[in-house]
Write a structure and sequence with these properties.
This protein has about 140 residues and is an all-beta fold. The protein is built from no helices and eleven strands. The protein has one domain.
């Protein structure tokens, strides 16, 4: 980490959500950020994409069962303060959740469904397609 002096950060976020049919909810959010180093323009800010888009659809089959599909786009990002970048990527995920008791849910899914090869930091690839099973405990009234 390095103190770079004065900088400007401008951007915005837009989110939309709608119920298409009684059991199907679709949501999308887009964020944009522009960062400028005013005092040391040769030192670049790292680890944040300029643009990010996240879209998901959730189908609530019943009170006990729901399916969630999502797609996430991240534009290229600066990985090192001297200009090394990692390319943009798109990830797709699928999740199935089943409530098995009053405060317990069993979830399973696939992250990075199409096995995209991507990095958030140059030289450190993220994991490929992965399958998970989770037992979730929650305390809703």
């Amino acid at each position: 980490m390095q103190n770079t002096g004065r900088a400007t950060f401008t951007g915005g976020e837009l989110a939309l959500s709608m119920k298409v049919i009684p059991r199907l909810n679709i949501s999308a959010s887009y964020s944009y950020i522009e960062r400028r180093n005013l005092e040391n323009p040769e030192i670049l800010f790292t680890d944040v994409p300029k643009s990010k888009l996240f879209i998901y659809a959730q189908y609530q089959h019943s009170k006990q069962l729901s399916v969630l599909a999502s797609v996430e786009y991240n534009s290229e990002r600066v990985s090192k303060s001297y200009g090394i970048k990692v390319p943009a990527y798109v990830l797709s995920n699928l999740n199935l959740s089943a409530k098995v008791a009053k405060n317990i849910a069993l979830e399973t899914g696939i992250n990075n469904l199409f096995d995209v090869n991507y990095s958030i930091v140059e030289g450190y690839p993220e994991e490929g397609r992965n399958v998970f099973v989770t037992l979730r405990f929650f305390n809703y009234k």
